[in-house]
Amino acid sequence: MPKHGKKYLAALAKIDRSRLYTPAEALALVKETSYAKFDATVEAHLRLGIDPRHADQNIRTTVALPHGTGKTVRVLVFAQGEAVQAALDAGADYAGGDDLIAKIDRENFFDFDVAIATPDMMGKVGRIGRKLGPRGLMPNPKSGTIVPAADLARTIREVKGGRVEFRNDKTGILHVAIGKVSFTPQQLAENFVALMDAVKAAKPSGAKGTYIRTVTLTSTMGPGVPVDPAAAQTFKP
Question: Do domains 6-69+163-234 and 75-161 have the same CATH topology?
């Protein structure tokens, strides 16, 4: 087991591991115990009562965080014709068709965070799915990244403004960034509420028993703060 440094241990000492905190208390502790020299990311980790072995119980959806994540999101759009310029005008970092597909395929170009595509491009984009898929960059209707040309501008604005895609891992846990340590407590609280609402709305019909089993809030490099799952689901900042 790796040994933790003095700063981590000092931060951990401020957390009572025997209790469950309210979301407001936990967010305050996350800010207090963040010792990174950079503006650390605040993350929520939720263990769900789902069986990831069953496709109908896996969760993949999006949430529009009111205050974004604090991260600059680079958007690439697969489109053709007038839709290319429309995407660039809406704020896309890259937009194109065959040229971008070839760049990704031949040059392993992945200098972007989210890929959006119009439906008419998916036949071509599918040819580089083996490269986009493992990196979580393949446009998908479940994540709202396959949209008609008329909806490109709105979708680009949402993605750049704080729309986050999340999915459970193979153990049934969600890991979602909800902001930065530099955010105000109110901003973090409102982003957290938006996430919890999205998670509750995405509950699979096949999930049995307790759906949200544990909730933990943490910062990059910082210790986790256990949150009362019941309080997390009813929290209003």
Answer: no
Coil, strand or helix at 151: helix
Helix axes 23-33, 185-201, angle to 10 degrees: 130
Query: What is 6-69+163-234's CATH topology?
Result: Ribulose 1,5 Bisphosphate Carboxylase/Oxygenase (3.30.190)
pTM equals: 0.81
Q: What is the pLDDT of residues 62-121, one digit of tens each?
A: 899 999 999 889 999 999 999 999 999 999 999 999 999 999 999 999 999 999 999 999
Q: 125-136, pLDDT tens digit by residue?
A: 999 999 999 998
**Contact between residue 56 and residue 206 where contact means Cβ atoms under 8 Å apart:** yes
Distance CA 166, CA 60 (A): 6
Residue 26 has pLDDT above 90, yes or no: yes
Among 3.40.50.790, 3.40.50.720, 4.10.91.10, 1.10.1040.50, what is the CATH number of 75-161?
Answer: 3.40.50.790
pLDDT at 19 exceeding the cut of 70: yes
For the chain, how far is it from start to end, CA to CA, in angstroms?
38
Contact 209, 51 (CB under 8 A): no
Q: Which residues pair with 44 in a beta bridge?
A: 176, 217
Residue 115 burial (C-beta neighbours within 10 Å; 0-12, 13-18, 19+): buried
Q: Are 99 and 60 in contact (CB under 8 A)?
A: no
